[in-house]
Write a structure and sequence with these properties.
The complex is a heterodimer. By secondary structure, chain A is mainly β. Chain A contains two helices and 29 strands. Chain A is globular. Chain B is α/β, with parallel strands linked by helices. The longest helix of chain B is centred in the C-terminal third of the chain and has 20 residues. Chain B has a six-stranded mixed beta sheet with strand order 1-3-2-4-5-6, sandwiched between helices. A four-stranded parallel beta sheet of chain B has the order 8-7-9-10, with helices on one face. Chain B has a three-stranded antiparallel beta sheet with strand order 11-14-15, covered by helices on one side. In chain B, strand 7, helix 6 and strand 8 form a beta-alpha-beta unit. The chains are: A mainly beta, B alpha/beta. The interface between A and B is medium-sized, with 33 and 28 residues.
Chain lengths: 366, 396
Amino acid sequence: MKKEAPSLSLPRKSGRGDANDRHCAAASMTSRIRSLSRPCGGVLGRGLFATAALLATLIATPANAYLAYVSNEKGNSITIIDTEKLEAIATVKVGRRPRGIELTKDGSELFICAGDDDAIQVLDTKSLQITGKLPSGPDPELLVLGPDGGIVYVSNENDNLVTMIDARRKEQVGDVPVGVEPEGMAISPDGAILVNTSETTNMAHFIDTRTKQIVANVLVDARPRFAEFKKDGSELWVSSEVGGTISVIDPVKHIVKQKIGFAIPGLSKEAVQPIGVSITRDGKRAFVALGPANRVAVIDAETKKIEKYLLVGQRVWHLAFTPDEKYLLTTNGVSNDVSVIDVASLKVVKSIPVGAFPWGVVVAPK
Amino acid sequence: MSAIKRLFLTGAITAALAFPAAAEPLVVKVGVLREAHSRETISILDIPTADDALAGALLGAADNNTTGKFTNQSFETIDARLAEGDDPAAAIDRLAEQGARLVVADLTADRLLAASNRAKTRGALLFNASAPDESLREENCRANVIHVAPSRAMLADGLAQYLVWKQWGRWLLIKGSHPDDELLARAYRDSAKKFGAKIVEERVYADTEGGRRTDSGSVQTQRQMPVFTQSAPAHDVLVAADEAQVFGGYLPYRTWDARPVAGSAGLMPTSWDSAHEQWGAVQLQNRFIQSFRRPMNARDNGAWLAMRMIGEAATRTGSNDPATLRGFLVGEAFSIAAFKGVRLSLRPWNQQLRQPILLTDGRVVVSVSPQEGFLHQVSELDTLGADRPETKCRLQ
């Protein structure tokens, strides 16, 4: 499939017809951008659609804003959110079934796992053009970038492999056989250890990034989906979607030192399915997305006590902080929106409509 | 004479990659005790293949062996296929003599009970991958049988919840003339009562023992089915109970009244469908098709899941002893992922696997039960099938 020329479209609005007209008006005033897929009513811009250059101008953002990128698994697109305005400002068509996404350290490129195209696409975040792809194995699902930005580590669900790719040369430099259905990926803050979780084997595999050998395997509860190190490297948190728990692992001793369970009044235990995990930079507080429980758990990351459950959109998948940790964004797969959590007040302050089945989210540095 | 073969899925066993095995791996031998299923199916797409059920077990063993690389465990599958008249008890003996005291069973209820009786003397544990009979979970329940397949009541309840949710509360029930059809019809009657639907009339479609394959079959069925369904009281949906596949498949689009068909045709409740892709299921479907060049059916999936339950228990307990594995599986700590969106666990009172029921039209999964709003104090999955307070099972 040809993916080199993405079509661009303007953000979806939450409202119905009049919202469309409003955005038409706004677009005419600014740069006469038209969405080809959902043309506006007037004659003025018919036939026009956003060129990359125009859109780049559009998203030349206000001073304080960060840009968040959301992959829409069923929409085959990336929605770009301005975190100052808290609204979607652009949608970029990409490959099929985009899930895991990751930015390069300088924010210039977005790597997109397009699982059904068996490709990792590279999106230039300035031109919003797909500029190429990384040589991934089949069905890439999640990826993580090493701390120096040199190597991308990818989980390939269909052939039980973790692939290592040189991010600059865009060449594959190794792979490691792991358990059945590799998914979650985390890199230790010093870059020495890569952790992969395998969904059917139910393990966290610790991989030495230098020797490319597995050095330890830690059993966790059923269907581990995501792994996250504390920034000081002292703990690794692994979420088990079906087991319904977080395993807190000692990354030196390779043992589960604590398990965190969730009990939400009025919800059956089957409905609580932990997936995304984000821990604040100071290691004091953690947020866990609980899938079809439609809630994000707020956890004291030191005592492991659950402080609060925040109601967000439906089937909450993944989480990302803004770099200043003012906001935490959540992708809500079933309700097609992103919830914005104000981290200081622990309140859900906004929900932003995005594309179909939002899955992954990353926020760019300034 | 049953053929007993040791089988490995090609490429499943590879050398331990992470750690050169310090000690001999723990070998977990699993028998697959199965019998041929009828080739008399209405659709040729449903004709069983030679590796029916076995293929699922082999894939489960391959998955377990990938994990086994890291845990120093190795899973071996031994195929034991019964011919007509073969004694399942003798097959249990032969498997036990080869060291396979864990057995995935794809057998009818009477043969499963015979195997269970012999398994008791051998200390073997059976995993029922296909038999839906209520009696195996109730008055004839056995401590050495774990039920991976859903019961008829679970399947019927799964469908009933959806029909009630759709507000299709008036059912015309048509059952076949075989004893299993009556058991299925009973499950639908119980479901209707449980969820407040009404069976407006029951009819029996007699099996006249004809074959299913003809070159001009549709000409007759097109005329027979409208007549057979004529003059029924007002109903919202026709529910067919036809396990022997005599008439169910002929009903859709041919009924006298323009009403949807459900049950054994039309909207069908099942534990697995080859079109199921949610919750990561597409990965399992892909693995299966890659290995066996055909889609995975419900019996394959039952055998795969049984093998995965054995693998999970062996991983967690570090044992291959049937009693130890059973202790883990019926305990609180056990849960397993099976691409159904929720964790599955065992009902401790009769060792039935709790599971969602897929509703399929044969092309796509239309819905998955339990339906929203059907509540339960322990697990919504226990709204499907007989619950603890009504069980007649006394495990022994």
